[in-house]
Amino acid sequence: MKASKLFLRLVWTACALSVAALGAAMPARAQEVATLKVESAFSGGAEIDGEPIALIGEYLELPVGRHRLTLRGPYASALWVDFAVTPGDLKLEAVEPVQNCVEYPDESVASFQVTRWTAEVVRDPVHDHVPVILVHGPTLGRRDEPLLQCPLRCCGWDEHRNWNLSVRSDPQGAMVLAKGKYVTSTNKDISVPYGVMRAGGEEDVSVLVTRRSYIGCRYSLARLREAGVNAVECKLRRPD
Q1: Is the Cα dihedral 13, 14, 18, 21 positive or negative?
Q2: What is the pTM of this model?
């Protein structure tokens, strides 16, 4: 009887280990993504979920779900576009012009504001299955809302360092942006500055490699530094 129980226990343990090994060997399920594009006649900068985008007619890949597009406009304005995206479909949930705070207001900011700023979803003329957020405006008018004064900043980075990075792309000639600002075009070697706190903590910088009509690549400088990576190569892709 004891031998039978021991045999069953050994069989159960072997099965459990086999299942665990199979699970470890199987790759994690890839997160489902959707392709889209954002087009706007005016922008002082744009980002989706806090990550800068170039707005040069590039295609974007985002995880399926809800996101927020933020466009920075004139006279301390911004546009928030909340949307939900699935493969081949995109629905706008809210389009809201907002007033940003102002650190150093000047006469023009005190006199004018955005009165209207809208967006709609259209289809890409080249790839019909790709939805496009098309932003219209903004329309300007005399200011009738008070300015919002930004609170004083507490502190900044104690020092700045640089990370050397060789950036390649296929095809070459793609734009390279760091913190949403143009740095150079591929293929080039660049030096990316980042902030450091004496008490601990280092700034993460988003490095974007992008080109019109392609899906580009985004790199986290913090992860590159952690892995000791000084060279990246982006395989630019057309939408499927």
Answers
A1: positive
A2: 0.82
- Token pair recorded at residue 118: 């809208």
Handedness of CA 131, 93, 34, 175 (dihedral sign): positive
- Do residues 121 and 138 make contact, with C-beta atoms less than 8 angstroms apart? no
Beta bridge partners of 90: 85
d(CA 196, CA 66): 32
What are the tens digits of pLDDT across the range 153-180? 767 899 999 999 999 999 999 999 999 9
- Listed in sequence order, the residues at least 6 apart from 24 whose beta carbon sits closer than 8 Å to its beta carbon are none
Bridge partners for 47 per DSSP: 52, 70
> Rounded to the nearest 5°, which phi and psi values hold at 158?
-70, -35
Distance CA(220)–CA(204), nearest Å, equals 7
pLDDT reported for residue 29? 55
